[in-house]
Design goal:
Elements: H1 2-26, E1 32-36, H2 43-57, E2 60-64, H3 71-80, E3 87-90, H4 94-98, E4 121-123, E5 126-131, E6 135-142, H5 154-163, E7 168-171, H6 176-189, H7 194-202, H8 212-227, H9 236-244, E8 248-254, E9 270-273, E10 283-286, E11 290-293, H10 299-314, H11 316-325, H12 342-353, E12 356-357, H13 368-381, H14 387-402
Parallel strand pairs: 1-2, 1-3, 7-8, 10-12
Antiparallel strand pairs: 3-11, 4-5, 5-11, 6-8, 6-9, 6-10
Helix pairs in contact: 2-11, 5-8, 6-8, 6-13, 8-14, 10-11, 13-14
Length: 403
């Protein structure tokens, strides 16, 4: 009887262990999602996040690499051939509207009602895009080399460029958005009715060269060509590195660039100032990109992608990545980032105070930056094209793209 009792006890213990193991595994799922997104500076951390997500949930996550400038065309090609990712990013506005047929309804996600007002991407009354963060851009400047208070007008900025003793007073870089899109946003955004003015340019009823903000922009671009390092020869990495090491006094960049500075021993204070066309005192701020789920994916894949977004925005692991690793400015109530660097802090304060101008570029014709605007600007920086000629060529590109 004693031997039988020991055997029975061993069997019961084994059964309990198996039950516990089964229970632990019951919460795990299976399946796979693919992610294609355009924010290259978070790629390393996103790959690690994918591994952590798989470890926690059992769902395999494959992150597809991208080079940035070709992202949108590569995304469209993939979606049109039914080889698209399960979860991908777009810029809300012209891009998401053009791709609306591929965007699943995300209104049912548990945290949607906690997203900041106007930050979720809605099309036809449905939330289709979940914002990564808010971002802002302008003149990132070295406080030891630039007195931002003395640069209140375009004339002040041009004078600084001509008289600065810095190796490079103001740095742009060769990548399409950093070369022209971001800085061209300013003269659009300072208009009394930015979207109305853009519409007028697109339909040909307004010419940019007749507008004061664009005349000042033309003068500023000539001064950059005359007094600064040719941006066609500078990569984004080198542009950020030259600023971090004190070779460049200012760079036209956004809060995303601060992650680059961690690789350098930065020994100066920095902040973010507006591009002062027509006396502008505000920073360009908006939701840069959002998450979207591919309607061409299977129902199970779509569910897995939505589960991933739930985890990303509500789990402690997901929120830690977004706040501490990606260093995002929160867009969902309850998420906090207590470690914002000076540039991110400046953007956050601008959002809180309302001291912002919009990203009109989000509503430019989809693909125009890479296809048309960047090539024209590269021609400007490598020839004797005047600033007004640059503005006219850019204007013609907008009109052609709208047809």
């Amino acid at each position: 009887m004693k031997k039988t009792g020991k055997v029975l006890a061993a069997v019961l213990i084994m059964a309990m262990v198996m039950s516990l193991m089964t229970g632990c595994g019951a919460g795990k799922k299976s399946g796979k999602i693919t992610i294609f997104q355009s924010k290259t500076e978070i790629m390393t951390d996103l790959n690690q996040l994918a591994k952590d997500y798989t470890a926690e949930t059992g769902v395999e996550v494959e992150v597809w690499e991208t080079t940035g400038d070709n992202y949108y065309s590569d995304l469209k090609t993939g979606l049109s051939t039914q080889a698209g990712a399960t979860l991908f990013s777009l810029q809300p506005g012209a891009e998401s509207i053009e791709m609306a047929d591929y965007l699943a309804d995300l209104s049912g996600l548990s945290f949607v009602n906690k997203i900041g007002a106007g930050m979720a991407d809605e099309i036809n009354g449905k939330v289709v895009g979940i914002p990564y963060t808010v971002e802002g851009f302008g003149l990132v400047y070295n406080k030891n080399m630039v007195d931002a208070a003395s640069i209140a007008t375009t004339g002040d900025l041009i004078n600084y460029l001509k008289t600065s003793e810095a190796d490079n007073p103001l740095g742009l870089s060769q990548e399409d958005y950093f070369l022209i899109a971001h800085i061209l946003n300013a003269p659009f955004a300072v208009q009394a009715d930015p979207q109305g003015y853009l519409d007028a340019v697109l339909n040909g009823s307004e010419r940019m060269a007749d507008n004061d903000a664009f005349i000042e922009f033309a003068e500023l671009m000539e001064a950059i060509r005359e007094s600064c390092t040719n941006p066609v020869d500078i990569t984004y990495d080198n542009n950020c590195g030259d600023f971090a090491t004190g070779k460049t006094a200012m760079i036209h960049q956004g809060n995303w660039c601060t992650g680059m500075f961690a690789d350098y021993n930065v020994d100066f204070d920095m902040s973010l100032a507006p591009v002062p066309v027509t006396g502008n005192k505000k920073i360009s701020v908006s939701v840069p990109i959002a998450w979207y789920v591919n309607t061409d994916a299977t129902e199970e894949e779509q569910k897995l992608a939505k589960d991933f977004l739930e985890w990303l925005y509500t789990s402690e692991t997901g929120k830690t990545y977004m706040m501490d690793k990606f260093n995002f400015i929160p867009v969902v109530d309850g998420m906090k980032n207590n470690n914002l660097d000076p540039i991110n802090q400046a953007v956050s304060e601008a959002v809180i105070s309302g001291n912002t101008i919009p990203w009109v570029m989000s509503n430019w014709p989809a693909g125009i930056v890479t296809t048309d605007l960047a090539p024209i600007t590269k021609e400007f920086f490598t020839t004797d094209m005047s600033g007004i000629e640059l503005v006219d060529k850019l204007n013609d590109a907008f009109v052609a793209a709208a047809k």
